[in-house]
Amino acid sequence: MKQESRIPSLDGLRAIAVLFVVFSHLLGTRGFLQPPTTSFLYELGYLGVKVFFVISGYLITNLLLQELQRNNRIHLGKFYFRRTFRIFPACYVMIAGLIVLHGAGWIDLTPRDVFHALSYTSNYFSHRSWSLGHTWSLGVEEQFYLLWPATLVLLGRRKSFWVAASVILMCPAIRVVLWNVYHVGGVGHRFETVADAIATGCLLAGTHDWLGSQARYTKFLESKVFLAVPATVLAVGMLHTHPTVYNLISHTIMNLGIALCIDFCVRHHTGSMGRLLNSRPMVFIGVMSYSIYLWQQLFFNRYSVSVFTQFPVNLLLAAGASMVSYYVVERPCLSLRQNLEKKIFARSADAAPMARVAAAPKAMAA
Q1: Where are the domains of the chain?
Q2: Neighbours of 97 (CB within 10 A)
Q3: Positive or negative CA dihedral for 175, 176, 181, 183?
Q4: Alpha carbon of 169 to those of 109, 174, 262: distances in Å?
Q5: What is the pTM of this model?
Q6: Which pLDDT tens digit goes with each residue over 1-58?
Q7: At CA 80, angle to CA 361 and CA 161, rounded to 5?
Q8: Residue from 278, 285, 257, 294 nearest 50 by CA
Q9: CA–CA gap between residue 134 and residue 301 (Å, rounded)
C-alpha cells in the first residue's frame, strides 16, 4: 500500500515519539520502573507528543505545498476527505471499544468523556478519565487540520507563514497569561497553548528550501555542535516544575529544537542516524504509531491494579490491540479511501471545491 509520505526519516521519528509516550506511560505500572512522581521521565510522553505535533505541521504543509506546486491550487474537499479516512475510523473504533469495556464494568468513563472524544474537543475538557485522557492531542491535531489548509487558501502562502510565525511568538504569552492571570486549566493542552509546536513544523516546511541554501545553517547541522540541540531540548523539558519559565521559554525552545532535529534527520538520512531511523523496525513502529498511540493508554494505567495493566502483560496486550487496529481498521480504510477518492474526485476536475492560492516565493524569507 502506498504511504502518504515518503519523506526520509519521518517514520523513524514517529517511532521515537510514540516510544517516548509508551515508556512514560509504562512508568509506575506494576512490574515496571517506579521513579518518583516528580521525575522528568514522566514528561517524555509530553515531549513525544510535541514531536508528533511538529511532524504533523511539517508533513501536512509539505503535502499542501506539493499540491500547490503541481496544480497551482489546493483541493480542500480532497484534503478533508483524506484526513477523515485517515483519522476517524481507527479512533472511533477505539472509543467504541472503550464504551463496551465501560459497559462491562472494566473501566470508568463519563458521558462527557465520550462526547469530547467523539467531537475532538478533549483538549478543552480537563476532567478526562485515564483511558481517554490521551485524546486531547487528537483534538489538537484535528483543529489544526481544520484551520491550516483554509488559512493557506484564504491568505496565500506568504501571509500564511507569517501567521505561523506570529503564532510561535504569541503562544508563550498566551500560556503565561492563562496560567498566571486567569488560572485556566488545560494550559499545554488547549489548542491556543500548543499551536506553536505545529506552527513550528509548518514554518520549517515553508522555509526548507531557503534554509538548505544557507551555508552557515548547513554547516551548523553538520557540526558536532549540533549535538547540543537534542541535549537542550531534554534539559529545558526538566523545567516543568517551574510553570512560568516552562510556559514562557521551555515550550518554544523544545519546539525549535525538535524542528532542527527533524530537519537534520531528513537532510542527512544516509548517515548513521538516518540509517537507524529508516531501518525496517523503526519504520514499522512509525507506520504503526497512530494505532499504538490510540490503544496504549488503556493498558498502561499506573492507577489500575488489574492484571491487564501489569508489565509485561500490558505491553503484549497493547501491541496486540495496535496490530489489530492497524491491519483490520487502518489499512482497509486507507484502501477504501483510495478507491472512493478515484470515483468521487476523478470524474471531473470540478467535482469538489478547489481553491487557488496566491503565488509566492518558495520560502517566506526568499
Answers
A1: 10-349
A2: 17
A3: positive
A4: 37, 10, 21
A5: 0.93
A6: 344 447 999 999 999 999 999 999 999 999 999 999 999 999 999 999 999 999 999 9
A7: 25
A8: 257
A9: 12
